[in-house]
Amino acid sequence: MDRVLDPMQGDGLMGETRDTHFKGWARPGPVAPGHAAGTTAGPGETLDALSGHWALFQLKEGHRFSTDDLLTAWYGSSWCPSARTVLDLGSGIGTVATICAWRLPGARLVTVEAQSQSVALARRSVVFNGLEPRYDIREGDFRDPGVLQDDEFFDLVTGSPPYFPLGAGVESDHAQKLACRFELRGTVADYCGTAARHLAPGGFFACVFPAEAAQMERVVAGAAAAGLVIVRRRPVVFREGDAPLIALFGMMRAVDLPEWHRSQTWVEPGLIIRQQDGRIHPEYSAVKLSIGFPP
User: pTM score, two decimals?
Assistant: First the structure.
């Protein structure tokens, strides 16, 4: 399966980030200073609304933010609402971290991304949204020594790992898209391992991965090998009545939990994106409102 673009991608909302309202919905939260500066997208780019008045620079033909990204940020910031420090692994253009910054206004963020093109876009988005004092964007592979120091710990770690090994499907010739879908720089087990090493005591790791049985086994194995416990899991159903395509995972270090809790996972009811008639499900509308996105 591919990452699923949110239904709002490409809507009129995307180009009119200065507006206070969109189709009857009032944009919440602080206004990005980039609006007053008159900042616009360059050739081959778009400047797309994300949370409230905040926006992201994206390539028109590159990796675009997806429902997977929105849900990862929502899940992590919902179940670690007091996070003061956030680490986003494989951060891409910065979607997950930007939403977390919007929802956790007191938090400081570190993001790690290996693709120079994505890092450059993320840095411009940080400036547009006025987040420089809170952000540390690092270019590199999070598995490499020195990218993250041994003594750096975070209350919340997020990740939206690529889903497939190389050779497991049709590979895009666009570098951004290829790295988003295929495991060029680490597997879900690598994400779990890095998260476990850098979680603060009592910290929370949120990620997304396919809900197919074999893929779920990879998450379970990666968590166990890293000393993590999957404390909660939420299947995501893109059309009411269908099987879930992805799942959201919330993990904590086993050493931070009582022994009796280390062998159990709370499997939540499925989150439905669209009803059978094609309309957005009321719960997903509420989720989108909670991250500053129109319902």
Answer: 0.90
